[in-house]
């Protein structure tokens, strides 16, 4: 479901083994195919983020630069 300005949200169910299916619309949007690698980030306060490989370097750099600056 599109929220606004290119932002989307989807509801998924977690299976017994902790697995979930990324919705088809999201897979197509981010070109996720069988064998694609994703990075899962977790923050107890802010939740979970899932990043496709193409976006990982940018976000890892942002995260680590924020840590160096003393930001959370």
* CATH architecture heading: Ribbon
Helix proportion: 25-40%
Helical/strand content category: alpha+beta
Please, how many domains?
1
Counted by DSSP, the helix tally is: 2
Query: How many runs of DSSP E, i.e. beta strands?
Result: 4
Explain what this protein looks like in three dimensions.
By secondary structure, this protein is an alpha+beta fold. It has one domain: Ribbon (Pemi-like Protein 1, Chain: D). Helix content is 31%, strand content 24%. The protein contains 2 helices and 4 strands, in the order ββαββα. The radius of gyration is 14 Å and the shape is globular. The chain starts with a strand and ends with a helix. 0% of the residues are buried.
What tags apply to this protein structure?
alpha+beta; 2 helices; 24% strand; two-stranded antiparallel sheet; globular; 31% helix; Pemi-like Protein 1, Chain: D; 72 residues
SSE diagram, text form:
Layout: E1 2-4, E2 7-8, H1 24-29, E3 38-43, E4 47-52, H2 53-68
Antiparallel strand pairs: 1-2, 3-4
Short description:
The protein has 72 residues and is an alpha+beta fold.
């Amino acid at each position: 479901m599109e929220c606004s300005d290119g932002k989307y949200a989807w509801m998924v169910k977690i299976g017994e083994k902790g697995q979930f299916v990324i919705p088809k619309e999201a897979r197509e949007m981010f070109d996720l195919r069988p064998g694609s690698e994703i990075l899962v980030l977790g923050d107890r306060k802010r939740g979970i983020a899932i990043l496709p490989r193409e976006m990982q370097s940018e976000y890892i750099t942002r995260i680590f630069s924020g840590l160096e600056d003393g930001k959370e």
